[in-house]
Specification:
CATH superfamily of the largest domain: Tetratricopeptide repeat domain
CATH architecture of the largest domain: Alpha Horseshoe
Largest sheet: 2 strands, antiparallel
Strand order of the largest sheet: 1-2
Distance between the termini: 60 Å
Order of helices and strands: EEHEEHEEHHHHHHHHHH
Strand content: 5-15%
Number of helices: 12
Amino acid sequence: MLQNISTVDNEDSISICANCGKEGSNVTNTCNKCKQVKYCNAACKKKHRHKHKKDCEEYVRLAAEQAAKLHDIELFKQPPPKEDCPICFIRLPALGTGRKYYSCCGKMICSGCIHAPVYDNQGNKIDNKTCPFCRTPPPTTNEEAVKRLNKLVETGDPVAIYTLGCCYRDGIYGYPQDHTKALELYHQSAELGHAAAYASVGYAYDCGRGVEVDMKKANHYYELAAMRGNVVARHNLGLDDGRAGNTDRALKHLVIATEGGFKNSLDHIKQLYTNGQASKEDYTKALQSYQAYLGEIKSEQRDKAAAAREDYRYY
């Protein structure tokens, strides 16, 4: 049983030195590790150290275990609701190949609505290249596209800020390739809640883009992205746990990513099943959840767009 461990004092409580028993408002020298006992001075802290050491270490261990449990509850809980296309109101596909970001209005539009036919007042089909949402004509030059993007960046649009970061990452649209600048913009977008930005920060630490490789930091940002619904970051966490031998945790991550529409995770669960590391029930449930996702994002117009085999990017 732990001794000399108490909860943090409230404003009305009296502090008591754990060594000499002295009471008073000047008993403020707190244990640096457990933060649960106080002393009247450094001498008392040092004198009591050998008596307190075992309880202190036990408290720190229990606190760490409790913190890890609470963290996992948050990490593995149901992700936030997925975004719908603002035109057809059908769930947007998980990956960028099925949607496109428009810098004229700041809307993410599904490929089906992008390629949906447009008719004039007489019911005749017309060739229309304007934005499907706001009907703004497309930019005619890279300079005009950049100008539109920067206007949204100035308003604090998180996707626009993230997109600008991607421009610096790839060195496109007249921007120099600058991984440090890209990382700065990813952080700014992430602070505004954009999950993909957290994932990109994690990837930077994972691969050493603009920073030293640091898997601890990479997984920290992958977790922040995953908790906000990013399926690629969730998949990466699953792979990392799998490499570490934490198969149960890996499977949890991969199942959530599969439910979110990431087929690579489903394929990996199938491989785990083949290797005897996952049950048939695990794979069957994952397959059913992926099929449910496909049902949620399906539309006739999207099928037509997919058949055209266009590759859409956010830029």
